[in-house]
Specification:
The chain is mainly alpha-helical. The protein has 10 helices and 5 strands; from the N terminus they run H-E-H-H-E-H-E-H-E-H-E-H-H-H-H. Helix 1 packs parallel to helix 3 and helix 9 packs antiparallel against helix 10.
Length: about 200
């Protein structure tokens, strides 16, 4: 639908950033001619990569007026929100229990292409449109309370504490408790959640 729309509407452009670009047309051969027609317009590009795409999701989102991601698309939307992009979710599986529905059904999340395209049309006509604009500070704090780009460093230190404990002969539970306690001391007691098996 997106490819057909960009072919038909000369005022639109489309940046596609598939997760595995090299195998996209092998997996979806039925759209290959449509992809070529869309690319031929000069208003549709596909981000390349050997196996995975070679860009972070936020990069093409910053070049776009709106980023569309699937609800089950992993961290793509979160990365784009963090970069300050306008983002909408498309929920083709109709998973209405997801918290994203609380953020704005019809402005942040859509359960049909018809609704999504109506919202895009509204956004293009009204610069003050709330389509794709979301204040999810509380959710961002829950998913990444630090938001400092140091997650890999924290994980590495935690894993080192865990491995050091194992190497000292501690059993699983003792090693986990030691690593948890070291993390609490450094980053705060509220940053370790107990009760997961």
């Amino acid at each position: 639908k997106l490819l057909e729309t960009v072919i038909a509407d000369r005022s639109l452009g489309l940046i596609c950033s598939p997760k595995r670009p090299k195998t996209l047309l092998k997996r979806l051969p039925e759209i290959s001619s449509l992809v070529e027609k869309a690319k031929a317009t000069g208003r549709c590009i596909f981000i390349d990569g050997e196996y995975m795409t070679e860009t972070f999701p936020a990069e093409p989102s910053l070049a776009a007026d709106l980023t569309i991601t699937l609800l089950l698309g992993g961290s793509t939307a979160l990365e784009c929100f963090l970069a300050g992009s306008r983002v909408v979710y498309l929920d083709l599986e109709n998973i209405y229990s997801y918290e994203e529905y609380d953020w704005g059904r019809g402005s942040i999340i859509f359960d049909s292409l018809k609704g999504l395209f109506a919202a895009i049309s509204e956004m293009r006509q009204n610069k003050d449109s709330q389509v794709g604009r979301c204040e999810i500070v509380a959710t961002l704090r829950q998913k990444d309370p630090f938001r400092d780009g140091q997650a890999a460093k924290r994980m590495a230190k935690y894993l080192k504490c865990l491995m050091d404990s194992y190497n000292q002969g501690k059993d699983r539970n003792a090693a986990l408790e030691f690593a948890d306690e070291q993390f609490r001391k450094t980053w705060g007691r509220d940053k370790v959640i107990n009760g997961y098996e």
